[in-house]
Amino acid sequence: MPSPAPVPTKDLLLPPPAAGAPDTTAPASLSRDAWRELRARPLVWTCLTVIAVIVAMAALPSPFIALLTDDNGRCELVNSKAGPTPGHPFGFDLQGCDYLAQVVRGSRPSLVAGLAVTAGALALSLLLGLFAGFYGGWLDSLLSRITDVFFGLPFILGATVILVAFPDHGLGAMALVLVALGWTTMTRVMRSQVIAVKDSDYVRASLMCGARPARLMFRHILPNAITPVVVVAMLNIGNVISGEATLDFLGVGLQYPQVSWGLQLNAAQSHFLDHPHLLAFPALLLSATVLSFILLGDAVRDAYDPKLR
What is the C-alpha to C-alpha distance for residues 90 and 84, in angstroms, rounded to an integer? Predict the structure, then answer.
């Protein structure tokens, strides 16, 4: 007796998706879920907006200055320390220059230092953590002891001592010093991730198929271990920006006639009671920038860690 024909199910009776319609059957992934959660947070968009404005100020200061102030490029001592006025919303600095123009120009060193130092420290951490976690043995022990030594050096104090010993320095030298003192935490995170990933089944399978160590590290282990390190790097950008401003404020970072938020805070500390705008405006932009990077890094960390959801 022939078996009855199968009854079409509801799913089989559904019409095919229209052309151009989003694919709702795409496989789930951690990155897709994290992005979906991040874009639903107003705080994330607020931080991204602040960061975008600061980046635009640092990259193209002239349009911002021309749009927001009547700065003519001249500094007149008769306007020294004058408060905000129409056409000059931030007032004037000690030399009688438009303060908004100076604050906009001061964003570039802080942002460049934050991004360059974090990128350099991230690259160094990825290599050291990858080799230490993959090979282990004496190499891991040696790199771990070196990391312990650098962990014992205070970030700001160590940078201050080094920069005082070499007084003729600029932004590049200061960035190198901050990279030399800022790679330890990311290296530890990278090492632990590599140790966890290298025992995975797909890594063992590639090894049994004859994959070379370089292919294992850079093709299989690195892409699956880098996410937590990148999250730590995002948190580190705000710390580096505040560290650069602190060094400028202490007088061991950038020097006049260069312009930075730290130097502006240093110049304003003696005039805060009589002319609070000299301290308030660079401090406000510095705080907003650092806080935006830190809050954005926290949000990315929470989105990528299922235990924190």
Answer: 5
Residue listed under structure tokens 């995170």: 189
What per-residue confidence (pLDDT) applies to 251?
Answer: 87
The pLDDT of residue 240: 92
Q: What is the pLDDT of residue 107?
A: 92
| The pLDDT value given to residue 19 | 54
Q: What is the pLDDT of residue 208?
A: 85
Q: What is the DSSP string of 226-240?
A: SHHHHHHHHHHHHHH
Question: What is the residue type of 25?
Answer: T
Q: Residue 296: beta bridge partners? A: none
Averaged over successive runs of 10 residues, the pLDDT of the chain (309 residues) comes to 51 51 55 81 92 92 85 84 89 91 92 92 93 90 91 86 81 89 92 89 83 85 88 90 92 88 92 90 94 91 68
CB 102 within 8 A of CB 79: no
Using left for φ > 0, alpha for ψ between -120 and 50, and beta otherwise, residue 83 falls in beta
**Distance from CA of residue 145 to its chain's centroid?**
27
Show the domains of the chain with their CATH numbers.
105-308 (1.10.3720.10)
How long, in residues, is the chain?
309
Contact by Cβ (8 Å): 69, 89: yes
φ/ψ (deg, to 5) at 40: -90, 0
CA-based nearest residue to 93, from 251, 111, 252, 84: 84
Strand segments, DSSP code E, in 241-286 are: none
d(CA 265, CA 248): 9
Q: How large is the angle between the packed helices 171-181 and 99-135, nearest 10 degrees? A: 40
Give the predicted TM-score (pTM) of the model: 0.83
